[in-house]
Structures are given as structure tokens and as C-alpha cells.
Amino acid sequence: MKIRILIILIVFFLFIFIRGVDIYAFSPGDDYLWLEFEQCIREKNGSLTLPLRLNYGRFPGAKKGLRELDDVSVFYSLAETDDEGKPVFYAARIQKDKQNYSVNINSSEQNHFIVFAQAKKKRNKITDQYLAKTSFLLFGHAFFKKKNTRTILSREVNRQLEIRTVPDVQCWPQTGNSVKIIPVFKKGRLAQKAISLFDENLPSVEIMTDEKGECAYIPPEDKRLNQKGEREFKQTVIVTEETQGGIRYISSYTLLLHRSRFKNHRFFMGVAIFLGTMVVVFLFVIARRKRIKF
Amino acid sequence: MKVYESRFLIQSISFAVLTYGGRLGLRLGHWLPCFACPYVGSCSGHCYLMALQRSQWGFQIPFAEFISVWGLRALGMFAGFVLLTLVLSKAWCGWICPFGTLQDWIAFLRRKLGIKELQFSWSLRDRLKPIKYIFLILLIVIPILIANAGLHSDFGLPFCQICPAKKLMPIFQGNFRYFAVDVTNPITVFMTIVSLILTAVFFVGMFFKDRFFCLFCPLLAMISFFDKIGFVRLKKKVDACTSCGNCQRICPVDIREVHLEKEKKNVLTQDCMLCLKCVESCPQDGVLSFRFLNKTIFSSSKNYISKCFIKKKR
Fold first, then answer.
1. pLDDT tens across B179-223, in order?
2. I need a surface site. Which of B193, B238, B263, B270 has the fewest CB within 10 A?
3. CA end-to-end span of chain B, whole Å?
4. Binning pLDDT at 50, 70 and 90, where does residue B304 land?
5. Could you give the 3-state DSSP secondary structure of residue B134?
6. CA distance B292 to A94
7. Domains of chain B
8. Is B203 in CB contact (< 8 Å) with chain A?
């Protein structure tokens, strides 16, 4: 009897242990940090300001306050490197309004920005380390450029788990164009890693990286987006996680997407309309040019 | 070299430069007063009409932004356009415009095929005249409504969407993609079908009538606003004119004002594209003259006509 109880207890503890590892794996129900694009503002001096909102929770709707997170900071790079080839990061000032955290990225000229937000949250024996990232171009046209007021980031940047995309930036990112997603953990690629994609209008999907540690994602057609104007956009948040040494790294990448420019073009239909009209008009002119007095 | 030969040469060079110059890194700006279509990927300069309709350099900006750098940029672009227009005026149409050149080539083909040109009555011509101004008003008003009154942005660049040059000019770069119907949403379907129908109508029109599209060209309408202050003049010695009517008969856009004008000295009219065929065909010495900054560049003469005639005879 005692042996049976002992076995049951061992199984129970094993179960607890296994579950204990398992509950830290990322699931679509888990929270993460992400950066959300808002409408770009054209400043009177010709520069552009892009407000980016920091969100914590689940994209798109389930947002929680950021107050429960520690060490929230935002920094960005201008796709430039220092003398040693390392990227230069600049600090961005977070504007706090009750539960809303946002940063304004301003550009007086054409720049490629890579923006990161980081935060952490301690819970029991494990720490959640969040990283949110996005990348975009801003085409500012200020007549008088401001002096460089950027502050180089002095504190350590926590980018252990980072989602990279190829291409890393697109002039006009749109649905239908393939994007390669590469999760990088401590400078190494993650093979057979689950990547979750949360879309503003479409159901979330999960894809796995291949042996090379990358996966291709083709943002599908979005009828709701198609109804809007060509300049309107939607966002897709790519999320992945990795746990190591008592720290769970959860990283997100916000992909801004416009509707596809050419995927909905019907060439043969267009040529048929063109040629059909041409023939009709041609015959009309030929038939009537002697009889009709224009 | 005769004027028509010079014109043919300059038109061909302009066509090549404006259509393919981008491949050589040539950038002539977004203010050109001619149909250098921005949809041709290798073009070296852009038609000003596109800039006029855009949010970056044109009217698609909120009223509040008119007094800002964005408004100044639009003004700067307009100033560039005006400057270029003042210098060459309608010569942009007759000597440089690549789409005008294409029309001349199509008309040349018709003549080679022995097909007669379509003749429009004066009343029809007069009825068609306002259409270019309607296009001009729409291409200014629609962007303003998009920026300020919430009109759907798929109506953006309204004239470019229906312009036949958008479909036909990229062909010279091997690009046929603009012949497609865009089924993204009902507005894009409507706009692309309208543009395809208009392109077909204009294409057939261009075949049967010299410079058919120029009758409706809003850029020509804009350029003609500056005729009176431009550096270019088409002068007529009213007293010496014998009213032979050569100028009217030879004009590719059927202008009769040059023939009928009895008072004004400057006979540069709204539809004129300064091809100078009227000056070439005038048999009276110095009756018609093309002037730049009041200096005569070319004037009519018996001698010129006889030279051309003799050469043709031989």
C-alpha cells in the first residue's frame, strides 16, 4: 500500500514538474508587448511624426495596462552602425497618459527606423522578458533640419530573442508579398520554432520555422482592407517565445501592411474591354464617317 | 534643315530622353509641362499633372496645411512648372511632349495607309473645347475633397487614373500591366473600366484625327493661361496677310484664328501647340513669325516655301 502511495506521489510530482515546464510555453492566450502604428502626422515644418503606441496583452483587442510591467523602455536605430559594426541605438521618450504609453518618432528627412520596446515582468520563479520591434521608412521633407537631438542609448539593450524579417524594410509593404520571418535567439536561428501571427482582420495563424530557422509568410488578401483606400493600412503582429535559464523571452514584430497593388489586377479582362471598345469605336467611325457630318 | 525636320528630330530625342533617360540616372523633376508619364518606370521626368494631384506637392492636402512647408512645396512645384511654361510655352506640346509625339507617329501611320483625316465641324470643335477645363477643374477639386471632405482615396490621382498615357506610354518600356482591370473594390473596378474605355476611344481618335487627345488635354489648358506673359510669341503682320488660308488648312489642330485674326498681333491661341506648320506654309515674307523674347527665330518667306517645294519635286 505504501509503495502504491509512493508511486502515485512520484507520478503526481512528475506531472506537476512536467506541467510546470509546459505552462511557460507560449500559447495564443498569453500576453506580449507590441508596437502599434497610428496615423502619421505631417508637421508644419515638413517633417513627419509617426506615433507608435505600446501595448501589452493580446493583439488586436485585448489590451492590458503597461503599469504591471517593469523597466519599460523604447529605443530605435536608424539602420546605421558604429565603428565596430554594432548598431547605434537612440533612446525614445515615452509619453504616458494614464494607461496609454506611446512614442513619437520624428523624421526631417528620409530615414529607415527600427524601433524596439522592451519590458519585463516577474512572476513566481520565472521572469518574462518582452521585446517588441517594428521597422519602417519615414520620408520627411523639412526645409530647415533640426540639429541632431538624438540621445545615444547608454543602458543595455536586451535583444536576446529578436524577430527579423527579410526584407527588413519595404517602401510599400503590402498583402500578397512574401516576407521571410527569422527568429534569432542569442545570435543563433531557431529551427522548428512556432511563430504566431495575429492579424487585425483575419484569424490568427501559427507557422513553424524550417531547419534553416526561417519561414515564409505571404500576408493573405484582406477584403476589409481592400475596401479602404490605397493608403490605408493594417497591422499583423508576429510573436514567438523561448525559455532559458529561468527567463522566458517573448518577442513580437509588428508588420504594417497595405492592400496589394497588383494582385487584384485582371489583365485579360482589361485587354478584352480595351480591344472590344476599340473595335466598336473603329467600326463606328468607319461606318459613319461618310454619312455623318460631325 | 527645315523646321519640320528639326521638329521631328527634337521630338524623337525628347521622346527617348523622357521615356528612357531615367535608366541613365537623369532626373528632370516632377514639374514638366508635358506628358512625361510617371508610370513609365524608366522616365527621366514627370508630368506636372501628377504632382498637382498628389499630397506631397499638390492639392491633396488639408486646408490647414496650405500654410506650412507642405503648402510651400506645392507652391514651389507650381513655380517650377510656371517657369518652364513661360520659357517654352506651347513648344512643350509640339516639340517635346512624348505623348504628342506618339500621336504624331500614329497620324503618320494613317497618312501612310492613305486614310483621310477625320474632319470636325467648327461647332463640334467649340463644344469640345470646354472639356479640357472640366478635366482641369476635376483634377484639382477631387484631391481637395479627398483631403478635406472624406472622399474615398481610391479616387486619388483622378486624371492619372483615366489618362490614356498611363496605359499607352509604359508599352514603350515593355509594361502592359496598366491594361488590367483592378477588381480590388467597386471604385477601382469603375475607375479602371472607365480608363480602359477612354483609352480605346482616344487611341482610335488619335488614329483618325491629328492630335486628337490634345483637344482634351488639361495640361494644354494650364499652359495656355500663361500665353500672354510667356517668352514665346507667334506674331502676325495683320496688314500684310493675304488671307490665303494656308495656315488654317495645314494646322493639325484646325485653328482658324491665325487665318481670321485681323487685329491682334500675337496669334498664339488656346489649342496651338507651336508646331510652326502655319509659319512654314505662309507664302508671304514675314507675315507670320515665331519669336522668343522678341527676337525672331523663324518667319514665313516665299523663299522657304519654294525651297521646300523644289526639294520635293526633285
1. 999 999 999 999 999 999 999 999 999 999 999 999 999 999 999
2. B263
3. 17
4. confident
5. helix
6. 61
7. 3-222 (no CATH), 231-313 (3.30.70.20)
8. yes
Does residue A60 have a cis bond before it (omega within 30 degrees)?
Answer: yes
- Helix, strand and coil percent figures for chain A, each rounded to 5: 15, 45, 35
Q: Which three cell numbers stand for residue B41?
A: 518606370
Whether A278 sits inside 8 A of B183 (CB atoms) is no
CA distances from B43 to A139, A140, A179, B31, B169 (A): 22, 24, 29, 13, 10
Whose grid coordinates read 487585425? A200
Which chain B residues are within 8 Å of A143, Cβ to Cβ?
A: 69, 72
* Confidence at B311, pLDDT banded by 50, 70, 90: low
Q: In the numeric block, which cell numbers belong to residue B288?
A: 507670320
Is A229's CB within 8 Å of B152's CB?
yes
A110 contact B CB<8A: no
CB contact under 8 A, B179 and A266: no
Which residues of chain A neighbour B199 with C-beta distances below 8 Å? 274
H or E stretch at A15: helix A2-22
pLDDT tens by residue, B235-261: 999 888 998 999 998 998 889 889 988
Greater confidence (A84 vs A272) lies with A272
Question: What's the average model confidence in pLDDT over A268-283?
Answer: 96
B152 interface with A at CB cutoff 8 Å = yes
The packing angle between helices B186-208 and B98-112, to 10°, is 50
Q: Is A277 an 8 Å CB contact of chain B?
A: yes
A233-244 and A194-199 strand pairing: antiparallel
Task: Tell which A residues from 186 to 215 touch B, by Cβ distance under 8 Å.
Answer: none
Alpha-carbon distance B17 to nearest alpha carbon in chain A (angstroms): 27
Nearest CA distance, A78 vs chain B (angstrom): 23
Question: What ipTM was estimated for this complex?
Answer: 0.92
CA distance B273 to B176: 29
Average pLDDT over residues A159-173: 89
Q: For chain B, what is the mean pLDDT?
A: 92
Of the candidates A96, A93, A87, the one whose C-alpha atom is nearest the C-alpha of residue A74 is A93
